[in-house]
Design a protein that fits this description.
Layout lengths: L2 E10 L2 E11 L3 E6 L5 H8 L7 E6 L2 E2 L4 H7 E4 L12 H10 L5 H14 L15 H13 L5 E5 L7 H13 L3 E5 L11 E6 L2 E6 L1 H13 L1
Helix pairs in contact: 3-4, 3-5, 5-6
Length: 226
């Protein structure tokens, strides 16, 4: 799926959060890194219209995120830094099904797709579990399932390994690596990016590096040390 930024920028209350950027993202695994406040999350949220460009244009699969907002948003699912905050219903299976119920699907298809995505991520045994009872890793898997059940082409994850122990971090790392969908990962967990196709480094609202994980991380560490 082609994601294209054409001189796209974002301003908030007179402050330039993202300076004009022109870049095309086509790779299967893309990492986004940078210091806090560097613009990386704002940039990622522009991909699925959570943030609109103040100037310029962003397209996803040829769909403009402003003029074709609803369709463009359907192409890319976003998982927030605290995934529990985006879950609406208290029981896991009900929350996953909720994302399908407003799409005109039959009751049978909603049930089938919910069951299939629970099986896909090996969390069918948690179907009747309450969200607040899930571990950190289970919550992250639940969030991934609740987004991918709607079948977007792209999954954007914001700090997916944040505050996870080593076991759950490894689980999420393996899950991301196995996804057939294109994945864009915002992270401070630099080892997570090992094997990624491309990494963008943001600094002060601009792309400071764009290349292999090793090259982008090296420049990131130089900036962080200043």
């Amino acid at each position: 799926m082609d994601i294209v930024f054409s001189d796209a920028s974002v301003s908030f209350a007179g402050r330039q959060a993202i300076h004009p950027v022109s870049v095309a993202l086509t790779e299967r695994r893309i990492g986004i890194i940078g210091l806090n406040g560097s613009g990386k999350t704002t940039f990622a949220r522009m991909i699925n219209a959570l943030v609109r460009p103040t100037a310029g244009r962003v397209t996803i699969g040829g769909l403009d995120t402003v003029t074709d907002e609803e369709a463009a948003r359907g192409r890319a699912g976003f998982i927030f830094q605290n995934p529990q905050h985006q879950m609406i219903l208290p029981v896991l299976a009900e929350d996953i099904a909720f994302g399908l119920k407003n799409r005109g699907l039959s009751k049978e298809e909603v049930a089938q797709r919910t069951e299939a995505v629970l099986e896909r991520f090996a969390i069918a045994h948690l179907a009747k579990r309450r969200i607040h009872e899930l571990s950190g890793g289970e919550t992250q898997l639940a969030a991934i399932a609740s987004v991918l059940v709607t079948r977007p082409d792209i999954l954007i994850l914001d700090e997916p390994t944040n505050q996870l122990d080593l076991k759950n971090r490894s689980l999420i790392e393996q899950t991301i690596a196995a996804l057939p969908e294109q994945a864009i990962v915002i992270t401070h967990d630099l080892p997570l990016l090992d094997g990624f196709d491309r990494v963008l480094l943001f600094h002060e609202g601009r792309i400071a590096a764009d290349g292999t994980p090793a090259d982008a991380i090296r420049i990131y560490r130089e900036i962080a040390a200043c």
